[in-house]
Design a protein that fits this description.
The protein contains six helices and 17 strands. The protein is of the alpha/beta class and 310 residues long. The chain binds fe (iii) ion. The site of fe (iii) ion has 5 residues, from strand 9 and strand 13.
C-alpha cells in the first residue's frame, strides 16, 4: 500500500437552511444517494463509486457552511499515532474523541481545530456499502444514475487567516504534500496552498482571507469535460444558481463548473487534473498571474467567486 497514513477526504458535514430543499439538490441535481438518517436529523449520502457508507452529511441549521471535514486514515493504529501528535502540537486546538456510532456506520473519530479555525477529524473505520457497480466483473457505470452523477466527493476549498501554520500542520503532522501554491509579490508570502495526501492535484486547499472558518466550495469529481458540460445543462434545466463555468483552472488544470446549493453553499463539479507524486516539485503561481491561475480562459478575477463564502 503506497498511500498510507491519511488516505483521503472521507466526509464533509454541511449546514443547510432547509433540509428538504437541500436533500432534493444533493440527490437530484448533484446525484448522490441517501444512505441513512440519524436521530439528530442528519442525512447521510454517498456517490455511486464510493465504497464507504457516506461522504456527505447534511444538517439543518440557521446558517450555511461547513461543520467539519473528516479524513479516513489507513488503520486504528495510525489514528492513535496521529491523534497523539495532534494532541501534543500547539497547531491543533480543542481536540476531542467521539465515540463509535456518533456518525452512522462510523468508528471512533478524533476531532481538532486547525489554525484557520476549521474543524477537522480523523477516523479509520466506516462500514462499506460497496460501490454501485460491485467488484466482480463490474460495468463501467451503474444503472439508475441521475443528475450530475459524480463518482465521488473529492475536495474542499477553505478560507482562513493563518494558512502558514495550517500548511505546517498538514505537511509536518499529517504528511500531506504541497502540490501548488500562490505567492505574493515577494515570492514567499502565501496567498493559497493546495495540499494532497494522495496522488491527486489536491485533496484540500486553503486561501488566505480576513475571516476564519469559511467554506468556499465542496467539490465532486466527474468523468470528463463532456460531463462538466452536461452538468452545466442540468444547472439550467433545474434552475440552479450558477456561479461560474464551464471553464478551466490553471491551478490543478481542472475542468470545472461552480454553482450554489439552495442554502448558498458553493458546489463544484470538475474533471481532469494531473497525477501527483511526492517527488514532483511544487507548482508556484505568482499573484500577477492570479487571473490565469484561477480561470485559465478568462484570465481575470471574478469578485463574487473570490468573496462569496459560507
Ligand atoms: Fe475545487
Amino acid at each position: 500500500m503506497a498511500v498510507t497514513g491519511v488516505l483521503r477526504p472521507g466526509h464533509i458535514v454541511l449546514r443547510v437552511l432547509d433540509l428538504d430543499e437541500a436533500i432534493r439538490h444533493y440527490t437530484h441535481v448533484i446525484g448522490l444517494f441517501e444512505t441513512g438518517r440519524d436521530e439528530q436529523g442528519r442525512v447521510f449520502f454517498k456517490a455511486w463509486d464510493e465504497n464507504d457508507h457516506h461522504s456527505v452529511v447534511l444538517r439543518e441549521a440557521d446558517s450555511a457552511g461547513m461543520d467539519y471535514f473528516g479524513w479516513k486514515v489507513d488503520s486504528e493504529k495510525t489514528l492513535d499515532e496521529l491523534a497523539a501528535k495532534l494532541e501534543a502540537s500547539p497547531l491543533a486546538r480543542d481536540t476531542l474523541w467521539l465515540a463509535p456510532g456518533e456518525h452512522l456506520a462510523t468508528g471512533r473519530r478524533f476531532q481538532f481545530t486547525i489554525p484557520t479555525g476549521h474543524r477537522f477529524e480523523l477516523y479509520a473505520t466506516k462500514e462499506a456499502l460497496g460501490c454501485m457497480t460491485g467488484y466482480e466483473n463490474p460495468d463501467p457505470w451503474p444503472d439508475g444514475l441521475r443528475g450530475m452523477a459524480p463518482s465521488r466527493f473529492d475536495h474542499a476549498l477553505l478560507y482562513g487567516r493563518d494558512i502558514d501554520s495550517t500548511l505546517e500542520l498538514f505537511r509536518d503532522i499529517l504528511g500531506f504534500d504541497l502540490t501548488e501554491r500562490v505567492v505574493g509579490p515577494d515570492g514567499e508570502f502565501l496567498i493559497g496552498i493546495f495540499l494532497a495526501c494522495s496522488n491527486k492535484a489536491h485533496d484540500v486547499a486553503f486561501i488566505r482571507s480576513e475571516q476564519d472558518d469559511r467554506l468556499h466550495h465542496a467539490s465532486f469529481i466527474l468523468g470528463g469535460w463532456h460531463e462538466v458540460l452536461q452538468a452545466a445543462d442540468i444547472i439550467s434545466k433545474r434552475n440552479v444558481s450558477l456561479d461560474i463555468g464551464p471553464t478551466r483552472h490553471g491551478i490543478t488544470r481542472g475542468e470545472t463548473i461552480y454553482f450554489f446549493d439552495p442554502s448558498g453553499n458553493r458546489n463544484e463539479v470538475f474533471a481532469g487534473g494531473y497525477i501527483w507524486y511526492p517527488d514532483r516539485p511544487t507548482i508556484t503561481w505568482h499573484d500577477r498571474e492570479i487571473g490565469r491561475a484561477i480561470f485559465y480562459h478568462d484570465r481575470k478575477l471574478n469578485e463574487a467567486f473570490l468573496n462569496v463564502t459560507t
